[in-house]
Design brief:
Largest sheet: 8 strands, parallel, barrel
Radius of gyration: 24 Å
Number of domains: 2
CATH class of the largest domain: Alpha Beta
Distance between the termini: 41 Å
Strand content: 5-15%
Helix content: 40-55%
CATH architecture of the largest domain: Alpha-Beta Barrel
CATH topology of the largest domain: TIM Barrel
Structural class: alpha/beta
Shape: globular
Number of helices: 16
CATH superfamily of the largest domain: Divalent-metal-dependent TIM barrel enzymes
Length: about 425
């Protein structure tokens, strides 16, 4: 045991304790919601990178956190893992997620980094057996090191492509070994800064081939989890190939991967793309590629990805409404890709941030389930499109030609009249549940 969280007891569902005590007021893992335990709906995961590896910097300031495990040795990597699993025990969440660089020190060579990685994977595996927390997904950090400054799969240097492929192979092996339920590819620098030095067609082909190899290797090793892509727009690269869900779907179709790869969708990235979170979720569900989510929020007065913990129940409710409409999570879950503010220095802050976020998600889930059960939104949607159920209307989408439709309109009887979309009424409806 470490003493980092000394004095902080495991957090339980205790809605009536005083406000200054750490407790879940809304998240009750065993509460039944829409026929399933709340824990099984939400499938919470802690992000190793923001919780244990991030030093508290931002684009305009350096490290503010002082953690006893910060450093590049295997002993400190093991200490970091010890603290992580102590936090998992305090929170009781079922899952966690990692990048390879979060959990192992960088070696002087690829071989040394691999040895460090494999050693810490075994250490984490032993702690998983003892503690019961599972791996939601693993991924490779192909963006922080200077070798990735021009991308990984899309890099103009073939040696960087090869290094990246080897790294993903090792990370997929480790995810499989730990029983991970998904593997995520996040292309933080898969894009370009200027067309003056960029071959778009070549880089897109490289990215497609890279993903095909990942899918092939998944099947080769018998990994049953989902391969997920996490879209992100414009940060840090201005023009990223995985801008949003719709962009990624076009990419998957081009390379014949639409039945092999799903989406891990982040609230903050949706906002940066000019969308709402629920828009991205609904788009993925409509295209049949919904997989998992990263739950956080952005500061709407900042133009970058601030990765704050969620605190807006109406936003979260609309997100989980789309998740439930899509059938809920299968291998996916709710990963808190969120970090403390730079001034939140204390161990208690890290626990409190997750506790509050889990409560917000619980409130959102219950509101979403209540809306679905009530059926008001779906009834309004069905009424709005009811005209398409008529035989003549259906024929316009299946068999009619332009000249046939023109003849029907010219013959009279078709005189479109505008109808209210009732947006304010529907917004008032949502407010009843949140």
């Amino acid at each position: 045991m470490t003493d980092f969280f000394a004095g902080i007891s495991p957090v339980t569902y205790s809605p009536d304790v005083p406000a200054d005590q750490l407790a879940f007021r809304h998240y009750n893992p065993d509460e039944m919601v829409a026929g399933k335990r709340m824990e099984d709906h939400l499938r919470f995961a802690v992000a190793w990178w923001h919780s244990f590896a991030w030093p508290g910097g931002d684009p305009f300031g350096g490290q503010t956190f002082e953690r006893p495990w910060f450093g590049d040795t295997m002993d400190l990597a093991r200490l970091k893992a010890d603290v992580a699993f102590e936090m998992f025990e305090i929170l009781g969440q079922p899952y966690f997620c990692w990048h390879d660089a979060d959990i192992r020190p960088e070696g002087a060579t690829f071989a040394e980094s691999k040895r460090n990685f494999e050693e810490i994977i075994d250490y984490i595996g032993d702690k998983m057996k003892a503690g019961g927390t599972k791996l939601l997904w693993g991924t490779a950090n192909l963006f922080s090191h200077r070798r990735f400054m021009a991308g990984a799969a899309t890099n103009p240097d073939p040696e960087v492509f090869a290094w990246s492929a080897a790294t993903v192979k090792n990370c997929l092996d480790a995810t499989h070994k730990l029983g991970g339920e998904n593997y995520v590819l996040w292309g933080g620098r898969e894009g370009y800064e200027t067309l003056l030095n960029t071959d778009l067609k070549r880089e897109r082909a490289q990215a497609g081939r890279f993903l095909q190899m990942v899918v092939d290797y998944k099947h080769k090793i018998g990994f049953d989890g989902a391969i997920l892509i996490e879209p992100k727009p414009q940060e840090p690269t201005k023009h990223q190939y995985d801008y949003d869900v719709a962009t990624v779907y076009g990419f998957l179709k081009e390379f014949g991967l639409e039945d092999e790869v799903q989406m891990n969708i982040e609230q903050g990235h949706a906002i940066l793309a000019g969308h709402s979170f629920e828009h991205e979720l609904a788009t993925a569900a409509a295209l049949g590629i919904f997989g998992s989510i990263d739950m956080n929020r952005n500061d709407y007065q900042s133009g970058w990805d601030t990765d704050q913990f969620p605190n807006n129940v109406p936003e979260v409710a609309l997100a989980y409404y789309e998740v439930l409409k899509a059938g809920g999570f299968t291998t996916g879950g709710t990963n808190f890709d969120a970090k403390l503010r730079r001034q939140s220095l204390d161990p208690k802050d890290l626990i409190a941030a997750h506790v509050g976020a889990m409560d917000i998600c619980a409130r959102g889930l219950k509101a979403a389930a209540a809306m679905l059960e009530d059926g008001g939104l779906e009834a309004a949607r069905a009424a709005r499109y009811a005209g398409w159920e008529a035989e003549q209307s259906r024929s316009w989408l299946t068999s009619a030609s332009l000249d046939q439709i023109e003849a029907q309109v010219a013959g009279g009887g078709i005189d479109p009249q505008p109808r209210s979309g009732q947006q304010e009424i529907l917004e008032n409806y949502v407010s009843r549940f949140v």
